[in-house]
Amino acid sequence: MVGLQIERIPRDVFFNMFSRLPIKCLARLRCVSKFINGIISDPLFQKLHFETSAPEVYPLIFTYRIWRENIISLNQMQLQDQKLQVRFTSIGHLLTSGPHEFVGTCNGLLCFAPCTPEEPLLICNPITSEYISLSKPAVNPLDQSCATTFGFGFQPSSKEHKVVRILAVPANGRDEVPDFHITAEVYTLGAAAGLWRKVQSFPYAPQGGQVFAQGALHWKIHGQHRLEHESDHIMSFDLSTEEFSTTLHPSFEHELSIVELRGSLSAITFSWRQMTVWVSKDRLNNEWDMEYCIPLGVPRGLDSRFPRLVCMWESDGVLVTWLQDRATMFPLKTYYDDQPKERGNNLPPPRYIGDSELYSETSVHQAMTKAAFITTSCVDIDDELGQALHINFLLGDR
Amino acid sequence: MSSGDSGPSSSKQLVQQPAAAGRSPNQPPLLGAGGRKVIVLKSGDEEEFEVDLLDAMQSRTLRRAIEDGCGDGPMPLPNLTGPVLAKVVELFRRHRGDPRWADELQETEKEGMFKDYAPQKPTAEVKGFDREFVSVDRDALFDLLRAANFLEAPGLLDVTCDAAADAVMNMTVEEVREYFGLVNDYTPEEEAALRKQHEWAFQ
């Protein structure tokens, strides 16, 4: 303790100092001493860090082998020397209960939905390996013919995380065009009565993964399911108004994928040898910017009719796309300056940087995580009655 | 707060800014360039520094004291040493017009006291000065951190916290202990468990 007299440095100063550090560095600092760990674990510090630090985008893949081992682990993916490196060190063996599927990620939390109605829905923080389970919704699917879709997002105005469940029960099963009776429920994390509430429903049953962007959850709706929408379109659920709406996508000609790019909803349309990336400028007025036109080439094994876009992100002047089983990198810098944005930036031929065959043992999912806070405080409300653990999330706990 | 014009005995006295330390404690408040008052800060080791009122406003602690009418005699700051206070005063002077506290100054603004205040983004020169300012050893940096906290000077806190954060950013756990002068108070088992939990952060 020579000279420094750390005890004379107010806690506020450490809060300020550490709020400038990235998550990874803070995780290491926890191992320094109980004093430092105490500062980083302080909810006040975590709130400050969450609110002041720039979002850190960790492109993550997580691999799950739950059917065999009941383990989901999370691996960090990063670009290094123009190669995609996947660090196989798991952040945590996250789940210990039954089989779950990935729903989505926001603010560094991951949401997993159960594969069977008996299991609870899980929210976990991969940084701390903590997870909580939510109580079960009031309405349970009757049988296998019911389709359940989940969504997970954050409402900045109320600082609440919300989980949405959409249950589609076939109504007139014998029709040519299947009709569904659809109910939607919302669970607010950290709310005093953390229960599922019914919200206004919507005539479409989404399929596939959600995208959380611009304060709303988005799902792709396959066009052929409804006669009035011949092509694919996007169903959105606004987390503040809790209402569903249709977001029209910019080009109705082609196959569509949706992802999150720079915090905005991004629609990717595929046509012969070209992938066009649109970014939503004004969702309610349906304004889109054409951001990139990407030559697809003819990647081995790519089914151009139904390409599966796994994830896409921008980092250090490159755009990385993970299409089907191929990760591809496009340098952006030179194309930004001298081309008008409205016309889209034509990107040069792709450069393959990774191959998901590396991960043939596992499933790969996108989990772009803005991991901005470290712990969540768990409060066990009534474990004896078999109720799920409830959580006072940092942000929901006002 | 009284503006410089109201003090009858001081109204004609103009002093070059920044002035050297060591005025007689009995002298009345001074006026700096533009007719603004100059306040005198006194360190714990009895060194005195003249500071333009506009510069002193970068510290919420000083601003409160001035608003409470404590700015007429030398203002004692017993927990700051002369060398630390000298550095702080210099930083305040260099950051005059820093837009970070433009709003706060507007709140304080009375009788056109800061009429020549023109917010301007820190120039490359000021940024260079900031870098130089925190290029000090650990103990000096933490003296400045404590001063920033005591003075409630957001700009000073910003510069010093950034420097300390930069310093520990890429350190190993052992180096951080050394840097903060901390003893490892975990049991070997506790530390191993924490390291295992945060294994990903050590790559």
Automatic annotation (TrEMBL), chain A:
<feature type="domain" description="F-box">
    <location>
        <begin position="3"/>
        <end position="48"/>
    </location>
</feature>
<dbReference type="Pfam" id="PF08268">
    <property type="entry name" value="FBA_3"/>
</dbReference>
<dbReference type="InterPro" id="IPR001810">
    <property type="entry name" value="F-box_dom"/>
</dbReference>
<dbReference type="InterPro" id="IPR036047">
    <property type="entry name" value="F-box-like_dom_sf"/>
</dbReference>
<dbReference type="Pfam" id="PF12937">
    <property type="entry name" value="F-box-like"/>
</dbReference>
<protein>
    <recommendedName>
        <fullName>F-box domain-containing protein</fullName>
    </recommendedName>
</protein>
<dbReference type="InterPro" id="IPR017451">
    <property type="entry name" value="F-box-assoc_interact_dom"/>
</dbReference>
<dbReference type="InterPro" id="IPR013187">
    <property type="entry name" value="F-box-assoc_dom_typ3"/>
</dbReference>
UniProtKB/TrEMBL annotation, chain B:
<comment type="subunit">
    <text>Part of a SCF (SKP1-cullin-F-box) protein ligase complex.</text>
</comment>
<dbReference type="InterPro" id="IPR011333">
    <property type="entry name" value="SKP1/BTB/POZ_sf"/>
</dbReference>
<comment type="function">
    <text>Involved in ubiquitination and subsequent proteasomal degradation of target proteins. Together with CUL1, RBX1 and a F-box protein, it forms a SCF E3 ubiquitin ligase complex. The functional specificity of this complex depends on the type of F-box protein. In the SCF complex, it serves as an adapter that links the F-box protein to CUL1.</text>
</comment>
<dbReference type="Pfam" id="PF03931">
    <property type="entry name" value="Skp1_POZ"/>
</dbReference>
<dbReference type="InterPro" id="IPR016897">
    <property type="entry name" value="SKP1"/>
</dbReference>
<dbReference type="InterPro" id="IPR016072">
    <property type="entry name" value="Skp1_comp_dimer"/>
</dbReference>
<keyword id="KW-0833">Ubl conjugation pathway</keyword>
<dbReference type="GO" id="GO:0016567">
    <property type="term" value="P:protein ubiquitination"/>
</dbReference>
<dbReference type="Pfam" id="PF01466">
    <property type="entry name" value="Skp1"/>
</dbReference>
<feature type="domain" description="SKP1 component POZ">
    <location>
        <begin position="37"/>
        <end position="96"/>
    </location>
</feature>
<dbReference type="GO" id="GO:0009867">
    <property type="term" value="P:jasmonic acid mediated signaling pathway"/>
</dbReference>
<dbReference type="InterPro" id="IPR016073">
    <property type="entry name" value="Skp1_comp_POZ"/>
</dbReference>
<protein>
    <recommendedName>
        <fullName>SKP1-like protein</fullName>
    </recommendedName>
</protein>
<dbReference type="InterPro" id="IPR001232">
    <property type="entry name" value="SKP1-like"/>
</dbReference>
<dbReference type="GO" id="GO:0006511">
    <property type="term" value="P:ubiquitin-dependent protein catabolic process"/>
</dbReference>
<feature type="domain" description="SKP1 component dimerisation">
    <location>
        <begin position="154"/>
        <end position="201"/>
    </location>
</feature>
<feature type="compositionally biased region" description="Low complexity">
    <location>
        <begin position="1"/>
        <end position="11"/>
    </location>
</feature>
<comment type="pathway">
    <text>Protein modification; protein ubiquitination.</text>
</comment>
<comment type="similarity">
    <text>Belongs to the SKP1 family.</text>
</comment>
<dbReference type="InterPro" id="IPR036296">
    <property type="entry name" value="SKP1-like_dim_sf"/>
</dbReference>
<feature type="region of interest" description="Disordered">
    <location>
        <begin position="1"/>
        <end position="34"/>
    </location>
</feature>
